[in-house]
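quick one before i forget lol
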Amino acid sequence: MNLPQITALAGFQVKGQGNSLLSLVKEKLSPQPKLKDDDKAFFVFLIFDLTKGEILFRDPRPFRPDTPKDYYYFGNNKAAESQYYLVREVGSLGYLLTTVWNDLALILDKYDMGNSDLLSKLQQMEAAGLVTFTKRKGEGTVNLQKLSLPGLNDTLSHIEEKKKAVVGKDKLSFEELVRRTLGVTSKKTRFVLVIPALLCPGEPLSVLSCHPDYLKLIEKVNHMENIDIKQECNKGFVCSICRSRGPDVKSGYSVSFSRTGVNKIFTTTTINYASKIEKSGFDRTYAVCNGCYQKLRAGEAVIEKKFRTRIAGENAFILPEGILKPLSYNYIKRLKDVTDLAFNIRDAVQWIDFVEAEAIEVDGLYALNIIVYRTDGNSVAVLQIIEDIPLLRFQLVMRLFAEGVAALYPHAHPMSLGSVYHLIPVRKTDKGQVNVQRVLSFYRSLLSGEMVYSKTLIGYAVEALDKGLRQLSKQKADNYENLNLSYYREGKEDFFIKHLIMSYLVLFRVLGQLELLERPIFISKRRVTMADDQKKQSSVETMEDFIEQQGFSKEARALFYLGALVNRVAWKQSGKGHKTKPVLNKVNYQGMGRRDILRLYEDVLDLIRHYFEGIPLYIGQYIERFHNYFGSLEKAWPLNEQENVFYIMSGYAYLVKAATDFGPGEVNDDKQAPENQTEEG
C-alpha cells in the first residue's frame, strides 16, 4: 500500500471542485457537544460594535450541518501555535475574549499582510478601546468591561484559565454566560458555536471569518497558495510523490497536516527514519512539492469524510488502490461501501447478493487497504493495518461463512465478517477497548491468510462463555458490550451459549477451509442439510450425525454427550422453578482437567437420579456413548483444559432449541427472543 499516493490521488480527483479551504473545515465541532435528542443547537455572533464602543452577543441562529462550511470553522489552533482561528465552539470562547485578536494581528504582519484591510479593522478595534495588542503571541487583551451582559447584574471581571467566565462571585461556563446574556431560560436551547463579527460606522455587519484577507491568510499559513515553478528545474529536492525536482520541495509541509488525519500516519519526526540518520535527511526521504502537498490536504479531507468507518468498535479507513492504473473516485467510493458492508451486515448471503446486484468486479485489478486507528483529538495511533486485499478474498470468506451457517442449520445464526467482533470478548475501560487487538489480528488472519492457532480460538470461546455468563448473572451488565448480552437477559442464558458455541463451530469450519489452522482440529465431511432427515431419526442418531459431520474426535464426542447430560439436568432444574440452572455452576469455564470431567460426570448422574423417576432411554443412550467414546482411564488424554470445556458446552448447546426459533444474536436486530427452551430427547 502506498498511502501517500492513495491520499494524493483522492485529493487530485476532487481538487478544483470547489473552495480548497473547505478541506480544512471541520464538519464536526471539537470537542463534540453532548446533545440530547430533544436539544436544539444554535450558534451566536460575538459582535464588536464600533458605533457604540461595546461587545455583545446577538442574533442566535439554528446550527445546521453546513454552518461550519458557511463560516469556516477550522477548530482550534495547535496548543503551541498562535491562536488566530476566529470561529470557535462555545467551550473555546475564552480565546475570543483574550488573545485571538493580538495573535491574528501578529500573524497578519508575519505573512506580509500588514497593509491588509483586515489588519486595518483590527486596529480600529484597538482604537475604540475594545482590544489591546502587544508584540508577543499569547498576550493582548479584550476589554471585558465593554462586554454587554443585559441578562446579568454584574460585569465580566476575568476569564479563569480560559475555561470559566467570572461574573461577580459566580463562575459560569461559557455556554451559560451566553445563555444568561441572551435571556434564554430553556436548557434545551444549546449554544454550540460562536462567530465573531465587526460593525463599523456606515458599513454593514462584517463576519470576520469570511473576510477575504482572513481566508487568504489561512491559505498562506497552510501553504495552499499556488506556487509558480518553472518547468525542468534542476534545483532542490525530489518530491517523494510525483518525483519532480524543485525549490518548493520540502518535508516541512508535514507540520501543517491534521494531527488526527490520515497524513499523520506516514509522516514521522523520528531521526532513525531520516536519510543518513540526520535532520536534513527528512527532505531526501519525505519531502513533497507544494502541488502534492495541496493534493494531500484535499485527499485527507476526502478520506476523513468519505472513506472512514467503524470496524470492531474502532475508527478505520478503507482505501481501495488500483494495481496497474488509478481508479476513478466514484468507483473507489463504491468499493469502499462494499467493503464497509462486509463488516456491518449480519448475513454473508445478503452481502454476496448485494455485490452481484451492484455488478461489482470482484476480480478487478485493484486491492483494498484497511487502517484501523484510534485518536484522542491530539494524535493518532494505528491499531492494525491490513494491506493489499483483493475483493475476491472478501467474497471467498463471506461465501465460506454462508456455507458454514448452512451446514449447521438449524443451529447457527447468519454470520459475516462483522460477527467476529461479537464473539471474541473485548473489555472496555475509560480509555477505550483494552484488548480489541486480538479481534483485529483475527481479521488480519482471515483477510491476509495468516495462521491461527486452534488453542487460541478455543481459548477465546471459553473466555467468552465465562465473561458472558458472569455478566448475565449480574443485575446489570457492566462490560463486554460487544458480546451483545442484552439479548440474553432474563433467563435466556442458554441461547447465549448456543449462539456462541455454534458460531465458533462455523469459524473453525471457515478457517479449516481456508487452511489457516496450524493443524486440522475438525475433519469436516460434506453432508446434506442437517434438518432434512431429523424427523426420521431418533435424537441420538441425529446427534451422531451432527458430531460425525463436525469431525469431532472420540474424546470430543465423549464430552459432547456429557454436555448433553448437563443440558437435561439444567432443563429439569428450570422446570422446577430455579431462577438459574445450578448444574451450570459445576462447569469451570476457566478450564477442566480429566479429574474435573469425571467429577462433573458423577455429579450429573446423581442429579439425574434425583430429577428423573428412572433413567429415560435417551439419557441411557447418552451415558452409554459417553463411556464408549471416553475409553480407558489408562490412556493419555489428548485435549487441554479449555478444549474440554468447549466440547462439553458444545453438547449442551446442541440441545438448546434451534437458532432459527429464538431471538437474534447480532447487533442490528431488535426483535425479542421468546422464553428459553431446550429440545427434549
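fyi Confidence is low (pLDDT under 50) at residues 527-534, 659-681.
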